[in-house]
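Subject: design request, 122 residues
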């Protein structure tokens, strides 16, 4: 691949990042998916700092889908300990399907009766 061309995922990721940004009150939940692992972090774009980070290497083994859901749940519990309840979801150009959706569902937790989520709101 030439250095001037970008993959379609990178182009979509640039388009998404033009529109969303994380703040201290509502950080950006950024996701990276490799063939073996999945990584998620909460980023404050105003100060360019990572507030919370989790990788699938930190959770017990299982299928990739189970790992993604566990990463989402672990990230949400760490975020709640840090005092973060609401985030902006950045899928990083990946299709909202499969492991990305499982991570988001894990971070949200169960739906309450009043329409809010058990863990993170986004």
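Subject: RE: design request

Done. Sequence follows.
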């Amino acid at each position: 691949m030439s250095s001037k061309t970008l993959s379609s995922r990178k182009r979509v990721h640039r388009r998404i990042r033009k529109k969303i940004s994380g703040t201290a009150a509502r950080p950006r939940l950024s996701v990276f998916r490799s063939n073996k692992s999945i990584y998620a972090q909460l980023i404050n774009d105003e100060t360019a700092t990572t507030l919370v980070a989790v990788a699938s290497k930190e959770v017990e083994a299982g299928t990739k889908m189970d790992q993604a859901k566990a990463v989402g749940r672990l990230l949400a519990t760490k975020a709640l300990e840090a005092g973060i309840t609401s985030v902006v979801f950045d899928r990083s150009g990946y299709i909202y399907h499969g492991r990305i959706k499982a991570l988001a569902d894990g971070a949200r937790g169960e739906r309450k009766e009043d329409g809010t989520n058990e863990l993170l709101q986004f």
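The chain has a mean pLDDT of 92.
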